[in-house]
Amino acid sequence: MNTLSYGLLALLSVGPRTGYDLSQRVKPLWQAGHSQIYPLLSQLEQSGYITFELIEQSDKPDKKEYTITESGLAELSEWVGDSAGKPVLKDDLHIKLYAIWLAEPEKARQLLQARAAFCLSELERYQLLMDNVEKDRSSDGGKKHFGRYLLIRKRVMDVEANLQFCKWALSELGS
């Protein structure tokens, strides 16, 4: 199984979800579209890791609500205990920074200012997510939502570090 499959199992370990809900909730975790998620859900179901219930809707097409099975929980639990691979570094800003000496100073500043603005908007978004996860943690004693809490905190720290870098780089450029 690939990492996205485990990501879907992780999301389902907290509770049942529709395919659409899974595709929305996977966004902060992994870059994936519907075309990747739905075939994986089918594979996970065929492997016995998840089941689904067809929910009839009168005003919309029927939807499937997926639930993780005991077998899926066991598979996920085993995978979580394995060591993580190397982090994937894939950000076009890194290449642009390497070649930034070719840019006009104003263009270089704009590049960094745009990334800083993005970081600020991400921090706002993560604050809303943090508010929600704190409510969820208080409702269930925190256990099921602890991983989500850790993930959001990690993302906040990553974004804060990126923002600090942008501020530092802008000062180096003399803006």
TrEMBL record:
Domain Transcription regulator PadR C-terminal: 89-173
Domain Transcription regulator PadR N-terminal positions: 8-77
Upper lineage: Bacteria, Bacillati, Bacillota, Bacilli, Bacillales
InterPro entries linked to this entry: Tscrpt_reg_PadR_C, Tscrpt_reg_PadR_N, WH-like_DNA-bd_sf, WH_DNA-bd_sf
Organism: Paenibacillus radicis
Protein name per its UniProtKB record: PadR family transcriptional regulator
Source organism, top-level taxon: Bacteria
SUPFAM superfamilies recorded: Winged helix' DNA-binding domain (SSF46785)
Xref: Pfam families: PadR (PF03551), Vir_act_alpha_C (PF10400)
Gene name linked to the record: padR
